[in-house]
Amino acid sequence: MYRWASSILTLTFACLLLTGCGESRVATYPVKGKVRFANGAPVRTGIVEFGSEDQQVTASGKIQTDGTFVLGTYTADDGAAAGEHKVIVMQLIINDGLIKHVHDHGGAVDPMFASYQTTTLKAVVEAKESNEIELIVEPAKRR
Amino acid sequence: MKSQKLGLKSPENRQDSQIPHKRQGFTLIELLVVIAIIALLVALLMPAVQQARAAARRSQCQNNLKQIALALHNFHDTFQAFPPARLIMDETQPPNDEGTLIGLDEPSWLVRILPQLEQNAFYTQWDIYKPYGMHPIEVRRQPVNVFLCPERHSATNAVAPDSRIEVTFPCGCPAGAQIVPGGAVTDYAGNHGDPSPGTSGLQTDFYWGGNGTGVLISSRPKIVGEGIAQTWVDKISMGEIDDGTSNTLMVGETHVPKDQMNKSPYNGPAYFGRHVSHFCRIGGPGIPIAHNSTDPRGNLFSYGSDHTGYVNFALADGSVRTISTSLNTRVLANLSHRADGQTVGEF
User: Fold this and answer.
1) Which segments in chain B show pLDDT lower than 70?
2) Residue B240's domain spans which residues?
3) ipTM for this prediction
4) Using one digit for the tens of pLDDT, what is the confidence trace for B293-319?
5) Quick one: CATH architecture of A23-137?
6) Contact at 8 Å (CB) between B322 and B63?
7) Taking the domains of chain A in order of start, what are their residue ranges?
8) What is the CA radius of gyration of chain B?
9) Residue B3 domain-assigned?
10) pLDDT tens-place string over residues B216-233
11) Under DSSP, is residue A85 helix (H, G, I), strand (E, B) or coil?
12) Using beta carbons and an 8 Å cutoff, which residues of A are at the interface with B?
């Protein structure tokens, strides 16, 4: 009898150790996509970020030179939370005149897309195995 | 008769014939079993040992941030303002003929707080209004332990060499070769603010003098005479932190890709004011905290660390917090901006 009790106790303890006290995470679903200008040219640099409208999470992905991106929330590529999102495109283009250099970043995206207050981009992530999202942005007025 | 015969034998011989059973060693199987059990126990223990070591490095890192935060508060007591991250003109002031800006090459905030870190002897070797490159090489190359996170650097491996580097900007543009006078590096970065743009609307407006929305920001120099900076103009004091010092970041850890260790501009000489990425970071929408040193979303201006899944921060009230790398970037922006008037979400 005592043996039984002790083995059950040990098992419970082991289970507790294994599960730990991890933070509560929002379920994420794989999202990939492409950012392009209205004329079809890909956006070649920057970060795409999805800010969930009803969850306190943001998912982001680096834009490759062909305009594609893969989103990640808790890791680099685990996807985004399901539901509606506001989407931003952030580019850090250095053009300060301090270092003369060749520009090779393709077209620049209008900075209005870089802030959640001014962006007009929206997307819906569905709770399924793959989401494919195309984003169309406008070029910066001057640069 | 027989026994008598035996009795005649020498005592040594008698022992030999009687004790062999007790002298028998361990069999191979027994030894292997014992070794296997010991190996199993060690294997069970190893992760625990590793975790204990990581925990020790984590608290060492937090302690460093606490020391830096206290030094900044003491600096504030003396000067009624936090130190400027570095000196640089605003974006309307073009560089002079040599392509340089007044104050830009002068030492960074890390040098300014040396006296508050009991590094007086080291501080006296610096002239904070003289270009970094004009200081002796031994001075530039002296690391300060408090500026190094033990998860990434030790004092014996914390110097960026004098180098001619091929710079690639975050946009992917090659910027050609840059000559960087080498020196000691740091793993800690002042909070320069969120990525909200300044007057020109460009996302890189933040690093010009006076534009930063954080606590340790690039400031315009106050110029006297022929291009000599005397003090700094954009003074951030406790009073400017409208969001409250417990809701605003002050110092965090830098993101450095594995192959960029001790290399400018990710992890360059920390006392050199020219490149803001050597000693400052920003955070917010589009600039998330990097998950680890291989995170493709990490760039020159993002926070990050070599810890697993978290970054340590010192807040402006002097407290040290461990923050998850998956922090909502909208919360990160609220924490980075000293006076955005927004309530800070859970962090």
Assistant:
1) 1-23, 94-100, 170, 198-201, 225-227
2) 45-336
3) 0.82
4) 999 999 889 999 999 999 999 999 999
5) Sandwich (2.60)
6) no
7) 23-137
8) 29
9) no
10) 999 988 877 666 777 899
11) strand
12) 23, 44-47, 49, 51, 56-58, 60-62, 65, 72-76, 88-105, 111, 114-116, 143
